[in-house]
């Protein structure tokens, strides 16, 4: 399937290994109650999810800062729901969200089984656009930190996927050539096209149930990696 022998496998974290949607929902269930914000949780999450994705796209493209992302995704959600809320409460929610998010530890199906299978055979690493102070806690809290040799995040690199430099940095830290590396991620632009442009092999974990794009092999469950590697 791959043109060259794979020695190193690089994973994205959110929506690839770590169940962002479930853990995020549990975080909001806690912090909205803690801060006495009266809003229907399911209705809130339904509006929040696409706005959060839009904000992350803007952040990835350097259209907004980290602090703007954290504020705007909440502000726009409450505005859409027509729930009056002060900036002070939004700031508290934004802080509490980051403080509590990593305390929830749900992984996507077959994450541990897949890592257990790969761990003796390959060197495993993480490349993530997530925030440094949160991603380490997610990995440790969900008990998968020990599987990974190098963990590269966008704050460390100073750029975000799909910028070539973050992949270049990760490859350099892992001391591996692009052709012997495999990138596994959920985001077509950031993970797949970004890594492919660097000469890495790629595998698209189709978390978002996108239609087949022809750029590379797509998998719908992590356990499928066992039959590929």
Keywords:
single chain; 6 strands; alpha/beta; 229 residues; 10 helices; 6-stranded parallel sheet; 2 domains; Rossmann fold; DNA polymerase, domain 1
CATH domain fold name of the largest domain: Rossmann fold
CATH top level assignment of the largest domain: Alpha Beta
Number of helices: 10
How do the helices and strands follow one another from N- to C-terminus?
Answer: EHHHHHEHEHHEHEEH
Shape: elongated
Mean pLDDT: 96
CATH architecture of the largest domain: 3-Layer(aba) Sandwich
The value of Rg in angstroms is 18 Å
Beta fraction of the residues? 5-15%
Strand order of the largest sheet: 3-2-1-4-5-6
Count of separate structural domains: 2
Give the tally of β-strands.
6
* Low-pLDDT windows of residues: none
Give the structural class.
alpha/beta
Main sheet record: 6 strands, parallel
Helix content: 40-55%
The span between the termini is 9 Å
What is the fourth-level CATH superfamily of the largest domain?
Answer: HAD superfamily/HAD-like
Account of the protein in words:
There is one protein chain. With about 230 residues, the protein is α/β, with parallel strands linked by helices. The longest helix is centred in the first third of the chain and has 20 residues. The chain is elongated. Strand 4, helix 9 and strand 5 form a beta-alpha-beta unit. It has a 6-stranded parallel beta sheet, with helices on both faces. Helix 3 packs across helix 4. It has 2 domains: about 130 residues, HAD superfamily/HAD-like (Rossmann fold), CATH 3.40.50; about 80 residues, Orthogonal Bundle (DNA polymerase, domain 1), CATH 1.10.150.240. It has 10 helices and 6 strands; from the N terminus they run βαααααβαβααβαββα. The N and C termini lie close together (about 10 Å).
């Amino acid at each position: 399937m791959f043109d060259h022998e794979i020695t190193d496998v690089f994973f994205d974290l959110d929506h690839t290994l770590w169940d962002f949607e479930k853990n995020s929902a549990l975080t909001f269930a806690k912090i909205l109650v803690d801060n006495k914000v009266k809003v229907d949780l399911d209705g809130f999450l339904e509006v929040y999810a696409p706005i959060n994705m839009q904000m992350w796209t803007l952040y990835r493209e350097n259209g907004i800062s980290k602090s703007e992302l954290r504020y705007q995704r909440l502000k726009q959600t409450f505005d859409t729901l027509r729930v009056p809320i002060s900036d002070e409460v939004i700031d508290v929610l934004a802080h509490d969200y980051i403080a509590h998010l990593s305390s929830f530890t749900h992984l996507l199906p077959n994450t541990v089984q897949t890592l257990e299978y790969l761990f003796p055979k390959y060197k495993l690493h993480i490349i993530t656009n997530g925030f440094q102070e949160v991603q380490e806690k997610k990995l440790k809290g969900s008990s998968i930190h020990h599987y990974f040799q190098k963990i590269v995040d966008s704050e460390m690199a100073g750029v975000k996927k799909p910028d070539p430099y973050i992949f270049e940095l990760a490859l350099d830290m892992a001391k591996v050539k692009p052709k012997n590396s495999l990138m596994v991620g959920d985001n077509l632009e950031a993970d797949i096209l970004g890594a492919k442009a660097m000469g890495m092999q790629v595998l698209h974990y189709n978390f978002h149930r996108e239609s087949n794009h022809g750029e590379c092999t797509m998998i719908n469950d992590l356990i499928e990696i066992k039959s590929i590697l």
